[in-house]
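Archive maintenance. Older records in this collection stored only the sequence; we are now back-filling the structure field for every entry so that each record is complete. The fields below show one back-filled record exactly as it appears after the update. Entries are processed alphabetically, and Inner membrane-spanning protein YciB is next in the queue.

ARCHIVE ENTRY
Title: Inner membrane-spanning protein YciB
Organism field: Roseateles aquatilis
Length field: 215
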Amino acid sequence: MKLLLDFLPLLLFFVTFKYADGRADWAAAFATEHLGFLVSGGKVGAAEAPVLLATVVTMLATIAQVLYLKLRGRKIDLMLWISLALIVTLGAATVYFHSETFIKWKPTLLYWAISAAFLVSRVFLGRNLLRKVLGAELQLPDPAWARLNWAWSVFFGALGVANLYVAHAYSTEAWANFKVFGATGLMVLFMLGQGLYMSRHMPEQDEAPAEEPKP
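Back-filled structure field:
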């Protein structure tokens, strides 16, 4: 359930964008009629309508996600709060200026926030953030925890750069595909690599003593 909630705004962004992109004229008319009062100039063109509608849907989905967790009395992760702040701020700018540039920065800023959290906790606070999260479940030597923490910081920093590159070097449609499939795929590969590395450094379980032969 949590995994579905985490990925729901991303999936809704992709589905909405693809649907509106295939009906650009309809999307422009719909956005102008229903969101024109939020847009500078009051009119949305066919070129920017798909990403604008997808952004609005994502904003609503993220707000609904936070409200749902609040009403259920569940803890809201810091990264979700940061994601909410970014999507509301940059999403509002995207809608008002009807420009996809702002929303394209959102994944990068989120990735860099994650990268900075691992970096700052280690360098300035002397803490290993990854060990704090997973230390109760995994037993690893100190050097392994240190390498893993650095790996998370470097990976998310690089992923933020990759998002900017795709956003500015390719079309909005290509960026949307990368946002959903490319970035997610890279995260899955990274997690698999982390799992393999952890398995190499986890202490081996003591073998169970052999049973004595029955007389």
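Update note: The chain has two domains: 1-99, 102-203. Residues 115 and 155 are 8 Å apart (CA to CA).
Entry marked complete.
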